[in-house]
Design brief:
2 domains, 171 residues, signal, alpha+beta, 34% helix, Nuclear Transport Factor 2, Chain: A, 5 helices, two-stranded antiparallel sheet, Lipoprotein
């Protein structure tokens, strides 16, 4: 029995519509979903980095690795995990470091992780050390100095991962 032209036209249209639906379905499956919002905004990361730095600088005894551990990761964590010399174990420190300025200079994200770079100016003019149990003295000739630092997000916090004194002593 021959197929009538109207039946043939309807089948052709149905095949065309079905093919179009398949092509559209395949294309929509290939479309990328928008990236989720990053876990860190630039402002949040800068604020967390500054808070961590100020807490780290404010540690009463910089030779006490347990006091520093909550604020550091990476290079600095390894440094604090190293064995302290006997001289450092006997060192007494008094005074307070003062952060004169903190400037976050760079923010980057990779997935949910963020890094922050920054610079700070620190005044240690009230810091004194005593190594021999007798005489207190200032450990630095120039107690005001600059620092460059890196921070990395770890478990929802921003930790200090690298710290270097700047070549330029002026802040």
């Amino acid at each position: 029995m021959p197929i009538s032209s109207s039946l043939f036209g309807m089948l052709r249209r149905a095949l065309g519509v079905g093919s179009l639906a398949i092509v559209l379905g395949a294309l929509s499956a290939c479309a990328t979903e928008p990236d989720p919002n990053p876990a860190w905004t630039e402002e949040e990361a800068y604020a967390a980095a500054e808070e961590t730095f100020r807490a780290y600088i404010g540690i009463a005894d910089p030779t006490d690795d347990d006091s520093a551990r909550p604020y550091v990761t990476g290079d600095l964590a390894e440094l604090h995990e190293g064995e302290s010399s006997d001289e450092l174990k006997n060192m007494q420190v008094r005074g307070e470091s003062v952060v004169l300025s903190f400037d976050a200079t760079d923010f980057r994200t990779v997935g949910e992780h963020a890094t922050v770079s920054g610079q700070a100016c620190v005044d240690n003019s009230s810091i004194e050390v005593n190594l021999d149990g007798e005489e207190w003295y200032q450990p630095r000739e120039d107690p005001v100095f600059g620092l460059e630092m890196e921070f990395a997000s770890v478990d929802g916090g921003m930790l200090l991962s690298h710290l270097d004194e700047t070549a330029d002593d002026s802040c």
